[in-house]
């Protein structure tokens, strides 16, 4: 219970403190102190009416105390208002939400991508350094260095704590969405459920900027995929959409995802995340409208120029009952080093009754397979021919 | 804060331009040089004029050519005053070399 409050409040409290003292490390120290005091007091004294405001006020007081103790340091701290005045002026009920500023700082393109990802999870998601390290399969020491390098660059280069101006906003928002999507796609690798974490970030983002269709589209996409996570694997093995046990799908999350998608479309969203979400939505319907899926993949291919998207379009064409056209589309692609190019060809050739060629394509795919589940899957396909 | 914008140009890029285009690029540099945020800077002569100096055990060693043997060469720099990195990056993006096959390295200056 206390943990939930902490997770929910961490980003907001940290954002407020970074905005207050303009220094990431000092803000984090102060917030951590405030949370430690809360963990000690709240179980016996009870939780305050507004835990967020209490945490912000306590963290600010801690920060000011520390700065008073280190006067010489205080002079160097950017944007520090006179401490006395500030303590009195804190309004317990209204703490400005500065998480959007924090998100844009963490996802600044001047930072290395892995630093953006780690910092976003730490600062907004409230994950511990050790948890992030586990999720990305690196040592805690490495993750600590990665975070510290990012924070040092923010401070040394003057990366602003602000929401970009209107003319910069679209490309900066793209960068933020890319970080969240990357976190989502890391989802299944480690022990921490980054998928759920990415969805939480998406929810924060869409609450802060409710009128951005692509942010809504990304959230919808993640929810619609996440809803099928338990059906996607059987043990270690990947289960294809057609063979998934639908009783394992989280229908509540699917309908919630669809509602978010509707909002994105109503906002005029026609971008890549919205289209991907629309595809995911179609794929979770009772009878999948494959011609419509193929049309959406065509649109997505136009938006992204990605041959992998073209490959998916071909799969949709085949599902719609036209493997011959699908094979023509696949053979136009320059994806010789890509496992799924060959396994898709194999499947299409099989459906067309060209078994020898299908076998050759599956063998080529098997040559490129690196993981055991992939190899098992392809071997099974070969044996069934 | 002060930022150094170090301009790494593709040496061939200027020659590839027509006279009119070259005049337009020159004009763009003049506009940037007149920007009130510019507090210093210089255009350097070509990389062929460079000499590297090292001192090893009290002996001065000189070699001909620029320090790094790359396609893009340091052609000059601006020193600007900007509110934050975003403003400096925006200034950097307006430097013609950045879109003519080169790049601009943006580095904050150590404050005294």
From TrEMBL, chain A:
One of its GO terms (biological process) is DNA-templated transcription initiation. GO terms for molecular function: DNA binding; sigma factor activity. Residues 13-71 form the RNA polymerase sigma-70 region domain. Keywords: Repeat, Sigma factor, TPR repeat, Transcription, Transcription regulation. Gene3D superfamilies: 1.10.1740.10, Tetratricopeptide repeat domain, Winged helix-like DNA-binding domain superfamily/Winged helix DNA-binding domain. InterPro entries: DUF6596, RNA_pol_sigma-70_dom, RNA_pol_sigma70_r2, RNA_pol_sigma70_r4_t2, RNA_pol_sigma_r2, RNA_pol_sigma_r3/r4-like, TPR-like_helical_dom_sf, TPR_2. It comes from the Bacteria. Belongs to the sigma-70 factor family. ECF subfamily. This is RNA polymerase sigma-70 factor (ECF subfamily).
UniProtKB/TrEMBL annotation, chain B:
Pfam families: YCII (PF03795). Residues 1-110 form the YCII-related domain. Belongs to the YciI family. This is YCII-related domain-containing protein. It comes from Haloactinopolyspora alba.
């Amino acid at each position: 219970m206390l943990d939930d409050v902490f997770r929910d409040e961490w980003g907001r409290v940290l954002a407020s403190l970074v905005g207050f003292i303009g220094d990431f490390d000092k803000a984090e120290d102060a917030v951590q102190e405030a949370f430690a005091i809360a963990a000690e007091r709240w179980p016996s004294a009870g939780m305050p009416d507004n835990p967020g405001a209490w945490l912000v006020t306590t963290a600010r007081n801690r920060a000011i105390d520390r700065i008073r103790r280190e006067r010489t340091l205080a002079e160097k701290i950017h944007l520090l208002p006179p401490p006395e005045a500030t303590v009195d002026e804190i309004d317990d009920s209204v703490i400005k939400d500065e998480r959007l500023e924090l998100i844009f700082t963490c996802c600044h393109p001047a930072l290395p991508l892995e630093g953006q990802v780690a910092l976003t999870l730490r600062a907004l998601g409230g994950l511990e350094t050790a948890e992030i390290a586990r999720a990305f399969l690196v040592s805690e020491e490495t993750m600590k260095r990665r975070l510290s390098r990012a924070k040092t660059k923010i401070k040394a280069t003057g990366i602003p704590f602000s929401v970009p101006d209107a003319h910069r906003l679209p490309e900066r928002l793209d960068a933020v969405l890319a970080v969240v999507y990357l976190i989502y796609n890391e989802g299944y690798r480690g022990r921490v459920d980054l998928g759920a974490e990415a969805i939480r970030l998406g929810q924060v983002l869409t609450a802060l900027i409710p009128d951005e269709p692509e942010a809504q589209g990304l959230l919808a996409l993640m929810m619609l995929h996440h809803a099928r996570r338990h059906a996607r694997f059987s043990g270690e093995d990947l289960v294809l959409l057609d063979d998934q046990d639908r009783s394992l799908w989280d229908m509540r999350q699917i309908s919630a995802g669809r509602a978010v998608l509707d909002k994105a479309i109503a906002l005029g969203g026609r971008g890549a995340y919205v289209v991907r979400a629309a595809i995911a939505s179609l794929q979770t319907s009772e009878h999948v409208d494959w011609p419509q899926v193929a049309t959406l993949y065509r649109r997505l291919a136009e938006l992204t120029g990605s041959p992998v998207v073209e490959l998916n379009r071909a799969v949709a064409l085949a599902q719609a009952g036209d493997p011959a056209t699908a094979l023509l589309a696949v053979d136009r692609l320059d994806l010789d080093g890509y496992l799924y190019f060959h396994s898709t060809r194999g499947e299409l050739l099989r459906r067309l009754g060209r078994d020898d060629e299908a076998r050759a394509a599956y063998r080529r795919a098997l040559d490129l397979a690196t993981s055991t589940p992939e190899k098992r899957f392809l071997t099974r396909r070969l044996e069934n021919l | 804060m002060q930022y150094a914008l170090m301009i790494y140009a593709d040496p061939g890029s200027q020659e590839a331009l027509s006279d009119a285009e070259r005049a337009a690029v020159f004009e763009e540099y003049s506009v940037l040089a007149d920007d009130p945020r510019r507090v210093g800077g210089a255009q350097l002569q070509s990389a062929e004029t460079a000499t590297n100096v090292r001192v090893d055990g009290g002996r001065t060693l000189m070699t001909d050519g620029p320090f790094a043997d790359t396609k893009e060469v340091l052609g000059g720099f601006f020193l600007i005053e900007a509110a934050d990195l975003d403003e400096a990056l925006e200034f950097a993006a307006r430097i013609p070399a950045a879109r003519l096959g080169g790049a601009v390295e943006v580095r904050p200056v150590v404050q005294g």
